[in-house]
Amino acid sequence: MSFDRQCNPSRRLAPLTLLLLIALGACPGALAQKQQAAPPALVFAVNEGGAANADAADILYRYQELGEVVEKALRVKVSIVNARGRDRLKENLKSHAYGLLLARPNDVPAEAVRDWGYQPVVSAKEPYQTLFIVVKTSPIRSIADVKGRTILTPDQYSNMWRAASAMLRDNKIDMSREQVRAMRDQAAIGWSLENGFFDVGVVNSASGVGRSWEKNGGRVIARSRDQINMPMIASPKLTSAQVERLRAVMIGLDSTDEGQAILKKIGMPVGFKDTPRQAFLDFLAWLGDLDIKQP
After folding, report:
1. 291 φ/ψ sector (left φ>0, alpha ψ -120 to 50, else beta)
2. How many CA atoms lie within 13 A of 231 on its CB side?
3. In which order are the strands placed within the sheet that holds 232-234?
4. CA angle, corner 100, sides to 166 and 47, nearest 5?
């Protein structure tokens, strides 16, 4: 027996081969499961505007509970990302890299709805306005008096800059011919006016300076129409049924204590409302085309 086992390797390997075949036959499901990759998470992008200083960790902390609400509504895993930079935001929307976007700038989401197939979900119940502000002692009384004055706006080509341009256009003033400078921080815009560096400032009514300007003695010489505030849009990859479920959940957040806590944490205590596609189209029509001057 000893000789036979040493000189006949096929007989020696037979038991090992048999055990291997049994193991493979008994676990085909487990092997198949290992081969099937988990579906990718839906990317939920948040853009808080050019003046926002929140980093990725802060965005994840503040929007974590809202992400869990979205997961339950859509029945998919959600990955929250901090989407910063206007150009990159537009590129990712064009390629449908974002499953959802919640953004303070309203013009880029509106373009995504109009041009790239995105679906409106909700926007903030509280709209905002673009304000032209001056100090109390300024001789400027109306937007018509802005012609020939120095103007300080938020970032060039931002939604606020575009709204200011549209307001001036409606009053027959071409902003490209005026003395306009841009500054990212709206609080700094108020400070610059108070210290006499510029004649007129442009701010958001929902910003700190916009809410407090008149209370502190300043004057508002012009207000824009109500604008879409903090819109949420969904990729065309999401089904109509998914969007409807998400819309209902988002609108209902302010009806529960838990939902109100989530809204407060993300800085949206008033909650959300349904906003139809036409509202985005009408808003873009008023803004007009963005003519970016190349250097």
Report:
1. beta
2. 24
3. 78-82, 42-47, 100-103, 232-234, 119-124, 272-273
4. 50
Bridge partners of residue 247, in order along the sequence: none
Strands 100-103 and 150-153, sheet pairing: unpaired
Q: What class is the 42-127+228-287 domain?
A: alpha beta
The answer to whether the CB of 149 falls within 8 A of the CB of 200 is: yes
Please, where in the chain does CATH 3.40.190.10 lie? 42-127+228-287, 130-223
Residue with structure tokens 């049994």?
22
Phi, psi (degrees; rounded to nearest 5) at 56: -60, -40
Q: Report yes or no on whether pTM surpasses 0.85.
A: no
The C-alpha atoms of residue 14 and residue 251 are separated, in whole angstroms, by 67
Q: What are phi and psi of 90, to 5 degrees?
A: -65, -40
The CATH number that domain 130-223 falls under is 3.40.190.10
* pLDDT tens digits for range 258-293: 999 999 999 999 999 999 999 999 999 999 987 655
